[in-house]
């Protein structure tokens, strides 16, 4: 799977989208695969919950949703323009209080750089799911414009 993922990353520059999403349930090996890719590329995966959470904690509650995108972009820009951005632990982006679309936010990051993100949910057909339908943070997105890999 690592070899296949490396090929996809190499081809991202030629594609319209520069985003690869690794989808799968908890314990399926997404983080391990991302770490292995990071070791091969010499890039440290970004723990979004930790880094973005730290910055959001200093942001007034009412401005957090508005600020989340810009803060994540600032964090991503520190990784370097040419480096592949590896995103892990993105659950914070699904927090209802932020009122943001996590997939859209990640897609916008992928306009300017190659991004590989761990999706903490499922890929079914051409749909990405987060949480169960009865969960308050449940989300369902069309995976168009994304290279989605089921792990």
From TrEMBL:
<dbReference type="GO" id="GO:0016887">
    <property type="term" value="F:ATP hydrolysis activity"/>
</dbReference>
<dbReference type="InterPro" id="IPR048067">
    <property type="entry name" value="BREX_3_BrxF"/>
</dbReference>
<dbReference type="Pfam" id="PF00004">
    <property type="entry name" value="AAA"/>
</dbReference>
<dbReference type="GO" id="GO:0005524">
    <property type="term" value="F:ATP binding"/>
</dbReference>
<dbReference type="InterPro" id="IPR003959">
    <property type="entry name" value="ATPase_AAA_core"/>
</dbReference>
<feature type="domain" description="ATPase AAA-type core">
    <location>
        <begin position="20"/>
        <end position="97"/>
    </location>
</feature>
<dbReference type="InterPro" id="IPR027417">
    <property type="entry name" value="P-loop_NTPase"/>
</dbReference>
<protein>
    <submittedName>
        <fullName>ATPase AAA</fullName>
    </submittedName>
</protein>
